[in-house]
Specification:
Keywords: Glycosyltransferase, Transferase. By secondary structure, the protein is α/β, with parallel strands linked by helices. The protein has helices spanning about 20-35, 55-60, 90-100, 105-115, 130-135, 150-160, 170-180, 190-205, 230-235, 255-270, 295-305, 315-320, 335-345, 360-370, 385-395, 405-420, 425-440, and strands spanning about 10-15, 40-45, 65-70, 120-125, 140-145, 185, 210, 245-250, 275-280, 305-310, 325-330, 345-350, 375. α10 crosses α15 (about 385-395). It is globular and about 65 Å long.
Length: about 450
């Protein structure tokens, strides 16, 4: 199926969810579908258009179309905000889902007047509560794209439907919407998640239309970095192999003042070289979250040349892939986890999600089941002991005391890389997905 121009008659409508951790792997999924010759229309609002640049630069033919809708008018989201990264995701994700549902009628109108309408919808799994009804109304199939792995998905479905762990209407709708989708696409690979994919099929979906296509790695340079990449690489070039600790907690997590102080103190005590990516504090920041300690930490770091403190976006993938980076203190977001595994760095797990199904489930998988990561701290509400964290940071880049977790991580990296190569499990799954999409019949208007 690779590069099959004969597939161009198959038109897919894509609806990503507007937050960085969702839209970037979604873009990579679309990239791979374009490589196999499909025609794709992507739905986006104006302020998220830049995230599609990797597709626009790659695809010069007429098989990629961008459908730009104004962000629906509402009073539940701050004026001018079109991406969840700019607000508290726990509070605003349900609001975004509700507001974006207003695109349903414009999409129906677009479909009914299109000379070459799509045969299926691929939408972010957060949107399934309204993209499933949209697909049904248009006599199409909706496939939910999940940025979670199958372990997390299964755990999430179990907690909501069997144990009633979170009985909020929004969570229940999310789970049911995903299960009721015609198919599910997962950013993972069979060798890692095959048993849980089977469990989802047997206990929840009751069908086998699940495709593990990952790792779907972020496109390079797709984020709005706040420091020139060349400057970061130049600094890393001056460091020894595997000697640098990279610290980042994703696009949404913001540490409390005690947590920030613990990390800063640990870095001082450890003596390691480091890059610390610090998200901007929230507007109206009364709790002083994500504020760098004011005891001259930044000045000392800058003066010693031992580390970089980067505020805002960082060129994360380029950092992780650099030979000098040896370990990664992370919140265990799945995108960051995959990037680290593919880059061969040692993961230091500090899960930060408010809901257990996300980062905590991933941390348990990495630390307890696979043995490819070391737990640095328990959860979002924990404050790491600075001395213990300092020792862990030092050990994670120590040449004298190589960690067995690193050896296992390197083996998992080889498996992940093999999955996306020609003939690998994810490559074959992609062929299967394309074959399935090509079997669908266009709806006549």
């Amino acid at each position: 199926m690779q590069g099959g121009e004969g597939n161009s008659s198959i038109h897919i409508l894509s609806i990503p969810f507007p937050t960085v951790g969702h839209i970037l792997p979604h873009v990579e999924l679309l990239h791979r579908l374009l490589l196999r010759g499909l025609t794709i229309t992507v739905v986006v609002t104006p302020k998220n258009l830049d995230y599609l640049n990797p597709l626009l630069s790659f695809q010069s033919s007429n098989r990629l179309h961008i459908l730009v809708f104004p962000f629906p008018s509402n009073t539940s989201i701050p004026h001018g905000v079109e991406n969840v990264k700019d607000v508290d995701h726990i509070v605003y994700t349900p609001r975004f889902v509700t507001v974006l549902a207003q695109l349903k009628d414009p999409l129906v109108q677009w479909f009914q007047t299109h000379p070459f309408p799509p045969v299926a919808i691929i939408s972010d799994f957060l949107l399934a509560s309204w993209t499933n009804p949209l697909a049904s109304q248009l006599n199409l199939k909706n496939l939910s794209f999940s940025v979670l792995n199958a372990h997390s998905m299964f755990h999430w479905m179990e907690l909501i439907l069997k144990h009633k762990h979170d009985t909020s209407e929004f969570s229940t709708k999310l789970v049911l919407g995903c299960i009721e989708s015609w198919g599910i696409i997962l950013n993972t690979f069979t060798e890692l998640d095959g048993d849980k994919i089977k469990s989802i099929q047997e206990e929840f979906t009751k069908h086998d239309r699940l495709w593990a296509l990952g790792p779907l790695q972020k496109e390079k340079d797709s984020e709005r970095v706040s420091i020139p990449q060349d400057q970061v690489i130049e600094w890393l070039d001056s460091c020894q192999d595997k000697s640098v600790v990279y610290i980042a907690f994703g696009s949404q997590v913001r540490l409390s003042k005690p947590q920030m102080e613990a990390v800063a103190s640990a870095l001082e005590k450890s003596g390691v070289r480091f890059i610390w990516a610090v998200r901007d504090p929230r507007k109206g920041n009364e709790d002083e979250d994500n504020e760098i300690p004011d005891q001259g930490f930044e000045e000392h770091v800058a003066g010693s040349g031992r580390g970089l403190v980067i505020k805002g976006w960082t060129p994360q993938l380029a950092i992780l892939e650099h030979r000098a980076v040896g370990s990664f203190l992370t919140h265990c977001g799945w995108n960051s986890t995959l990037e680290a595994l593919l880059s061969g760095v040692l993961l230091l797990a500090w899960p930060m999600a408010l809901v257990e199904v996300e980062h905590s489930a991933i941390a348990k998988l990495l630390v307890d089941e696979l043995g490819v990561a070391i737990r640095a701290c328990e959860d979002l509400n924990s404050v790491s002991d600075a001395t213990k964290l300092a020792n862990l940071l030092s050990e994670s880049v120590s040449i004298e005391r190589p960690r067995p977790e690193r050896v296992r991580a390197m083996k998992l990296r080889e498996t992940a890389m093999a999955a996306i190569q020609k003939g690998g499990s994810s490559d074959k799954a992609m062929d299967g997905l394309v074959e399935t999409l090509c079997s669908l019949k266009p709806t006549k208007n």
